[in-house]
């Protein structure tokens, strides 16, 4: 590919984000813990992301502290954002507790 052709290729959108948000416990069955993505991150994902899987979920790679993991984010009608589930193993490794702010690095469709 020539240099001229290379610059004409569409760029992939950058779907990597860093943010801080509190960890919270779902009040229903299962004791699931989630982080609600900030509104501006959710809006960028809605505008830039490609096709979604069932229930609107999007695969992600995430890092909290030194723990990297793969998951999916899910749209949440109540908040108008996306929810990132945080497994017990991640919470245990990073010493996370409900209600405390968590620093997250997130890449959509890794």
Description:
There is one protein chain. A six-stranded antiparallel β-barrel has the order 1-2-5-4-3-6. It has helices at 3-8, 39-48, 88-94; strands spanning 16-25, 33-36, 58-64, 67-76, 81-85, 101-108. The protein has a single domain (14-108), classed as Elongation Factor Tu (Ef-tu), domain 3. It is built from three helices and six strands, in the order αββαβββαβ. The chain is globular, with a radius of gyration of 16 Å.
Structural class: alpha+beta
Largest sheet: 6 strands, antiparallel, barrel
What does the overall shape look like?
A: globular
CATH topology: Elongation Factor Tu (Ef-tu), domain 3
Strand content: 35-45%
Tally of helical runs: 3
CA-based gyration radius: 16 Å
Spans of at least 5 consecutive residues whose pLDDT stays below 50 are none
Q: What is the CATH H-level superfamily?
A: AF2212/PG0164-like
- Domain count, please report it: 1
Order of helices and strands: HEEHEEEHE
The largest beta-sheet arranges its strands as 1-2-5-4-3-6
Number of strands: 6
Distance between the termini: 25 Å
CATH top level is Mainly Beta
Write the CATH architecture name: Beta Barrel
Q: In which range does the helix fraction lie?
A: 10-25%
């Amino acid at each position: 590919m020539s240099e001229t052709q290379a610059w004409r290729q569409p760029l992939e959108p950058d779907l990597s984000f860093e943010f801080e948000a509190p960890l919270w416990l779902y009040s229903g069955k299962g004791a699931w813990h989630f982080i609600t993505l900030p509104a501006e991150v959710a809006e960028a994902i809605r505008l830039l992301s490609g096709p979604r899987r069932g229930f609107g979920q999007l695969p992600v790679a995430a890092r909290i502290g030194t723990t990297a993991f793969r998951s999916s984010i899910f749209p949440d009608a109540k908040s108008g954002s996306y929810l990132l589930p945080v497994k017990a193993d991640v919470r245990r490794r990073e010493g996370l507790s409900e209600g405390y702010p968590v620093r997250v690095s997130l890449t959509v469709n890794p």
